[in-house]
Amino acid sequence: MKILGNRAFRWALLMTGLFAIIALTTMNVLSLYDLRTRMVEGEEERRVDQLDEINDTIRNQIIDPLRGISSIELEGIENSIQHSGQLPDNINEVLTRSAASPFFTDIYFTPDGTDPCIENSQIYRYDPINNQIVLTDQYPKLVCDGVGIARTKTKIQLNDFNYRWNNNFEFDTHRSLNLGLINLNENSLIGTLTLILNEQYIINEVFPPFLNNYFGDSEETGVVVWVRDWADDKILATNDSTVTFNLDIVDHRMRFSGSGFFDNWSLNLAFLESPVSNAYNATLVKNLFVLGFAMLFLTGSLIFMFVTAQRERQLAQTQANFLANVTHELKTPLAVMQAAGENISDGRVTEPKRLKQYGDHIYNESIRLKGMIEKLLDVARVDAGQSLIKAAPYRMQELIMSYLEENRQYIQKKGFEVKFTSSDEKAFALVDKDNIETILSNLTENAIKYSKDDKYIEYQISSNDKYVFLSITDHGVGIPKKEQKNIFKKFYRVENSDTTSSKIKGHGLGLSIVKNMVELNDGTINVKSNPGQGTTFVVRFPKLSHETGQAPTPLDDNDQASDNDNLKQHTEYVG
Ligand code: ADP
Predict the structure, then answer these.
(1) Residue 436 Cα, ligand 1 centroid: separation in angstroms?
(2) What predicted TM-score, i.e. pTM, was given to this entire model?
(3) Which of 382, 441, 450 to mutate to test the pocket of ligand 1 (most atoms within 8 A of CB)?
(4) Best exposed site among 58, 137, 179, 369 by fewest CB in 10 Å?
(5) At 61, phi and psi to the nearest 5?
């Protein structure tokens, strides 16, 4: 119940963690997109503001030479004209400045009461060379045909001359600037100055640098601006003549603002693929990439931690089971020995035949106990990295043959057919003889344990230029493909219906010891297996050349004894 609760809790934690990662990532992606939209919108607003700036700057530049007129007392104009036929000097100064401005071509003064629309009327023209006004009936039609003077007058009158300033100006579209001069004392109109605008200058000299400065090359800025005469349907200026004007692609259209200022013209702005949005897209992609990577990394770490925790739990469980098994395995022979020993020491068993029986029991169980302990010590040594080897050149075939000599009978007793083949009798390898025996005995034990009806074990020796191969084949239950990479892990046992640990005794240590010993001897071990057909373990050691190799050292008495022990340990352990 508690384990179940723990597991559910861990899963819940994993899910919460994953959910948090997904939620955080989604939030980040959304805010990145939001930021991008705002950036692009902000950039577009900035561009529209620039149109306003152009409007104001040009208008100010046009009006600039006329500044100062408001501080002049205009009441003297009528007198001056009456007496000298000229404007007062201070007005002339303003007119000189204005005549010098490239925005104007001509300046006319129409006194109130004169109607320039009547043919042959005489109005004044400012002559900048002589700095005087001269009466003329040769003036352009636009002094009258437009709305300039009429509108200026009307506006002043509508306002009932209620002006703080002594003048009021009005543009007649892009053609003229008209300045109504007001006698503030008498609330009357003195006359109108008509400054003819230099249309070609404005179109050819003013707009292009403005548009280029503000909007540059559309390929870089992503913006195209057109100044368009909508009344004539004509494009006057643009920052990119390669893009054809089309109302459909115009994102923002603006009339020039001011009293009548460039009334027939409009500013049109189109956003192509803006580099800001392009740049931002690139950043967005980078950000998304980093985010994706971070998310994958976080998810990976989370899953890794989860799986590791799960594994550690399994390992702890396996070790606990192992300990329980080991304790049981150690206790059983001890109990037998204790009982037998007790019976003998009590003097209850005196009959020689039974005494021998009890002695055999004690001997066999002690052998079994020793085997167990040795195996455990092997594991402990492997764990502590303390395994030392006594490597010497051995002829592989002889090592196998000596092993088989000792064990063939035992294996056959178990009902197995034993076969041994060798394609290289002289193959030498630098190995530890005891290690080889342990390897052979473990692999043999397994072949016996995991075989059913087809009881067959084949030992084989072969070689190539570099290696000696030793293989052990059985016709047993086999090992599923997906398990093959795990079987060499400590405590790992294949859990299937044929080989569940409950059915066949074992602790999942044999192959881990084998692998370790093979590697200590500079070798490798591989498994080939088909479930239901059998298994072959192939052990490979570096081959010694025949010349440097030497025959295996003959066994001395101790070796012999220990081999006998091995055999018995083998026998008992498998039991
Ligand atoms: P065990 O004490 O379980 O035998 P081992 O480390 O020797 O431990 O083996 C690990 C697992 O590999 C075994 O549980 C068994 O499932 C599988 N195995 C090992 N050798 C063989 C074999 N010859 N045939 C089938 N399965 C085998």
Answers:
(1) 18
(2) 0.50
(3) 450
(4) 137
(5) -65, -35
pLDDT in tens, 442-480: 999 999 999 999 999 999 999 999 999 999 999 999 999
DSSP symbols for 420-468: EEES-TT-EEEEEHHHHHHHHHHHHHHHHHT--SS-EEEEEEEE-SSEE
Give the number of other Cβ atoms within 10 Å of residue 428's Cβ. 26
CA of 512 to the centre of ligand 1 (A): 10
In angstroms, the CA 414 to CA 420 distance is 17
Looking at ligand 1, which atom is closest to the CA of residue 477?
A: 25
User: DSSP assignment of 344-364, as one string?
Assistant: HHTT----HHHHHHHHHHHHH
The packing angle between helices 275-345 and 352-384, to 10°, is 160
173 Cα–ligand 1 center, Å: 100
Residues 6+ apart with CB under 8 A from 497: none
Dihedral-angle region of residue 141 (phi above 0 means left; psi in -120 to 50 means alpha; beta otherwise): alpha
What lies within 8 Å, CB to CB, of 59 at 6+ separation is 256, 258, 261
Residue 162 — pLDDT band, cuts 50, 70, 90? low
Please identify which residue in the block is written with the tokens 């057109």: 226
Nearest CA owner, ligand 1 atom 25: 478
Q: Which residues' Cβ are closer than 6 Å to ligand 1?
A: 446-447, 449-450, 474, 476-479, 487, 492-494, 499, 506-512, 535
Give the ligand 1 atom nearest the CA of 492: 10
Cα(86) to centroid(ligand 1), Å: 124
Contact criterion met (CB below 8 Å) for 546 and 416 = no
What is d(CA 227, CA 203) in angstroms, rounded to the nearest whole number?
9
Q: Is the pLDDT of residue 271 over 90?
A: no
Query: Could you report the per-residue pLDDT of 522-562, keeping only the tens digit for each?
Result: 999 999 999 999 999 999 999 987 555 444 443 333 333 33
